[in-house]
Structures
1.
Amino acid sequence: MYRLAILSRILHMHEEVSSLKIPEICPYCGGKVIFTDSAVIYGKSYGMIYLCTNCNASVGVHKGTNRPKGTLANKILRLERKEAHRVFDALWQKWGISRSSAYEWLAGQMGLPKHRTHIAYFDVEQCGRVTAICREHDNDMEVA
Ligand SMILES: [Zn+2]
């Protein structure tokens, strides 16, 4: 039973990941997005990325695949996501709950289905909400 539950969770995660579309047009500037090696922007290769040839917005892929890890991000969004992650990770670690439970809680707070609740999918506005929600609940000791 337990194994089945884990297996179905893993399969479900894969579904969520593969449901992210391969980016072709940049959502920020309408530029053409190419699949290329990250060395073109970092000077050193960290794997393959999708890169906007116009504004350099980019997203990494799951190792050895062409599946994007999130949505295309420009510099500002990358900073916002980093900040949201920092605050969110600090919160669930402080509460001593799992990352998955924390995302479940966050989904409820944001009124989003759990499979859409990932900081890597969020835009600047949503990242701002994550940061605000986490700060607001910083002193809550338990999760409903
Ligand atoms: Zn662009």
2.
Amino acid sequence: MTPKSTVHMVVCFLQLCIVKGQIICERQIIAEWRVEPKHVLIEWTLRKNICTDFYSECWNVNQNATREDKNLSVPQICPVQLQLGDTLFISSEPSFQSYGMNLVNASKEEFINCPKTDFLQDQQIFVCQIRGLHQVDATWLGVGTHYFAELHKRGPYLCNMGLRLNVTVKQQFCQETPNAPLCSKHGRCLSHVWEKQYSCHCFSQYSGKFCQKFNVCSTKPCHNNASCTEKSDGIRNSYECACPPEFSGKNCTEIVGQCQPHTCFNGNCSNVTPNTFLCKCDKGFTGKTKHFFFFFPLGL
Ligand SMILES: *[C@@H]1O[C@H](CO)[C@@H](O)[C@H](O)[C@H]1NC(C)=O
Ligand SMILES: *[C@@H]1O[C@H](CO)[C@@H](O)[C@H](O)[C@H]1NC(C)=O
Ligand SMILES: *[C@@H]1O[C@H](CO)[C@@H](O)[C@H](O)[C@H]1NC(C)=O
Ligand SMILES: *[C@@H]1O[C@H](CO)[C@@H](O)[C@H](O)[C@H]1NC(C)=O
Ligand SMILES: *[C@@H]1O[C@H](CO)[C@@H](O)[C@H](O)[C@H]1NC(C)=O
Ligand SMILES: *[C@@H]1O[C@H](CO)[C@@H](O)[C@H](O)[C@H]1NC(C)=O
Ligand SMILES: *[C@@H]1O[C@H](CO)[C@@H](O)[C@H](O)[C@H]1NC(C)=O
């Protein structure tokens, strides 16, 4: 059989085999960083996982394609997103055994238009034509988006039909130092599908790039409607309360004034400073001021 007839046969065979109807790629819109790297296997075949519509099929996101995005809607293998350090395997369709193709590291334009036959040797992904299972060398999987396309000396037939792959490799910026826990254990290391990296998303009481900062104000230490300000001097649990005029003290719990008889209705009064006092409530009674403000103008 001549090489030309082999190509013809493979193309015809695949055209018969291609599943009709759209393929929706499985996606996590937001992914969490895995501590362990993963082996990812991509089946280099036209029989499944070929999507065409950029948003609704390839990315499974509900967004109308704008005019600029229209040229991104090309048949392709479901795009993948990897973590830096993951390994990628390409497993080729058995019927490609004698077809004699390679993969090429293409530019975005070449990915969209499919590469011509006269492709640079040094952009070929594998040293030989692909047969069965091949591991993609890490040199092709640096941080960023990579476009791998089918390369065949007779032309980009199968690339045009969908044998092209968008691989995005992301790294994480979730550790303050290499051995520190992700997001200081106070958040999650996440990446949205359109983000270029993983970053920390902190639990409610924490902030900072690595969730290393505890927001002490979130514990509401300032009482009596005082406003709380985190102090930026780097000291943990440092805050300042801006008390309303009638309150004082670190947490605005002390009342401005001095103890007088019956100041505290159902409790004992104690002076804290020459200017402030506190009421200690009897069992069963609560309240900030023990009616102090209601009675002070009348009784004292
Ligand atoms: C998106 O498409 C839907 C239906 O296809 C349409 O109702 C909607 O108005 C479109 N939105 C935009 C922003 O074009
Ligand atoms: C892959 O192709 C892109 C676009 O042509 C190029 O910028 C990049 O350097 C290539 N990668 C490698 C490892 O050669
Ligand atoms: C997509 O189409 C727009 C407008 O037609 C063009 O400016 C842009 O260069 C195209 N992008 C690619 C990657 O071909
Ligand atoms: C490739 O995938 C990335 C997301 O990882 C996306 O932003 C980009 O538009 C895709 N490129 C093409 C040409 O589909
Ligand atoms: C202020 O409140 C904190 C708890 O929020 C407490 O630990 C501290 O002792 C209080 N300080 C004063 C002076 O009441
Ligand atoms: C607390 O302060 C807010 C605004 O500063 C004010 O609207 C509200 O009435 C105050 N509440 C009390 C109980 O004083
Ligand atoms: C108030 O003081 C009295 C007398 O010293 C004491 O018996 C009582 O337990 C105190 N009450 C509170 C709530 O501390």
